[in-house]
Design a protein that fits this description.
Elements (H helix, E strand, L loop, with lengths): L5 E5 L14 H13 L5 E3 L5 E5 L6 E5 L8 H14 L3 H6 L1 E8 L7 E4 L9 H9 L7 E6 L8 H8 L5 H23 L3
Parallel strand pairs: 1-4, 1-5, 5-7
Antiparallel strand pairs: 2-3, 3-4, 6-7
């Protein structure tokens, strides 16, 4: 059985100004995921839209990529990096098997929880996910992993916007290690064809 190459993209706001904010929870998880999957240290890659990239030095099963853009305009860099990832694969079979995992923050889940949605599913009002879906080929299947960040008591848009820009506590950042472990299982299962 062939191993499925997996491109794991996180969207959020750029570092260092937005490091470990709730809105950039996907980036925080990706940093921990690199340790779980034993990939190389992150490095900037011009051909991958100047995002940070980490890959498996032994093979090409997993590539982790962090978007360099602001959350709500993530689509173009994600698409550019996805195309570069596909071009890096050796064979047409690998390219046809390749899948994207999009890691993003999720207001509807508490800290420490993830929600995995597969196939062609809606953005559920998430502007970063909407931006990505608008740039990818229509009907392209991907796996979306929502990382729980909780929700403020108020549903007012300005209160929600202020909440997602707050920094996580150290306890919450530490919880992202366990979240990354959950995401690593998703990635490993997809790579082996179990998903």
């Amino acid at each position: 059985m062939s191993i499925r190459p997996i491109f794991v993209a996180s969207i959020g706001n750029p570092s260092p100004a937005y490091t470990n904010t709730y809105h950039s929870a996907g980036h925080t998880v990706l940093a921990h995921l690199r340790i779980w999957l034993h990939t190389s240290p992150f490095r900037k890659s011009r051909i991958h839209a100047s995002g940070l990239i980490s890959d498996d030095p032994r093979d090409n099963y997993w590539t982790l990529w962090q978007s360099p853009s602001l959350m709500n305009v993530s689509g173009k860099p994600v698409f550019t990096a996805w195309r570069a990832f596909l071009a890096s694969l050796s064979t047409p079979e690998e390219r046809s098997l390749a899948r994207m995992v999009l890691v993003h923050d999720e207001l509807e889940l508490p800290i420490g929880k993830i929600k995995v949605r597969e196939g062609v599913t809606s953005a559920k009002g998430h502007n970063g996910v909407k931006s990505v879906m608008a740039m990818l080929p229509k009907g392209m299947e991907m796996t979306k992993v929502g990382v729980g960040i909780g929700r403020p008591a108020s549903r007012e848009s300005r209160d929600v916007a202020a909440y997602v820009m707050k920094r996580m506590t150290q306890t919450e950042v530490d919880a992202m290690t366990d979240v990354a472990g959950q995401v690593s299982e998703v990635v490993r299962n997809m790579s082996s064809g179990a998903r």
